[in-house]
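To close the chapter, one final illustration. This time we ask the reader to focus less on the individual chains and more on the assembly as a whole: which components sit near each other, and how the overall shape emerges from the parts.
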Amino acid sequence: MNPIFLFFHKTGSPPWFYKYSGKLIPWLWAIFLVLTAYGLYLGLVVAPADYQQGESVRIMYLHVPTAWMSMMIYGLMAIMGFIALVWRIRIMEVLVISSAPVGAAFTMIALITGSLWGRPTWGTYWVWDARLTSELVLLFLYFGVIALYNAFDEPRKAARAASLMSIVGAINLPIIYFSVEWWNTLHQGSSMGSSGTGIHPSMLLPLLLMATATKFYYGANLLSRARLTLLKQDHRKRWVQDVLSKESH
Amino acid sequence: MSHTPFILAAYLISAVVLFWAAIAPIVNKRSLLRQLKNRQARMDKSQ
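The assembled structure is written out below.
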């Protein structure tokens, strides 16, 4: 068999996935903790206050990475959902449904931290501008995917419905991204783009460290949730009985 | 206006949400394994 096909074939096998993801998770958590500790030190202690935003700029080291993650995770869910529906790869269905709570957590943090930054900077916690509203819609989409999955008794049917909703909901991603260009919003435009960034390195480094840390958080949390979902779905299968006898000793 | 309460609230709420999201699958897995083990024990007993 072609080595690439062999790799996908192996990765798609629940016992194989369960075994090797279990080995990966502690490393992902460790990298996340190291990056977060260093990022927080640079962001809260070393980086200067902003000349306009003052000390509240320190909220940006949380708000920006979590807002990026909220969009990235939904985008990944749409891609994995597409693969799950077209090629019927069960692991992809499991990854879609396991991503949704993590994405919802990041979206919630992005909205709350944005609101807490907005009060001292804009003078208000919330405005119904296009960026904030479309991000709130994203949170509802995550809740919708989770609710839809839980509405079915048959897990594979539920996962397929959730995958389809992930694909349809992805229409909101370009709306969030371009909202600051398409409409007049209180939310500022992107500070980073293909033409570079105007952010000073002393602020850029903690921002990028935190952004990288959140990727590892997602990886570790996703794999933990995917392993749990596999155990729930396959609890009558032999490999789960083997896991049970191993983990109970 | 002091920005400190807003910064503290932002970091505290984020830490709580991230911790809860991280710990939930671990707690649920323990509970599931306990349930499966109890079921297995009941089945072994009835045979």
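Chain A has a mean pLDDT of 92. DSSP finds nine helices and two strands in chain A. With these observations in hand, you are ready for the problems at the end of the chapter.
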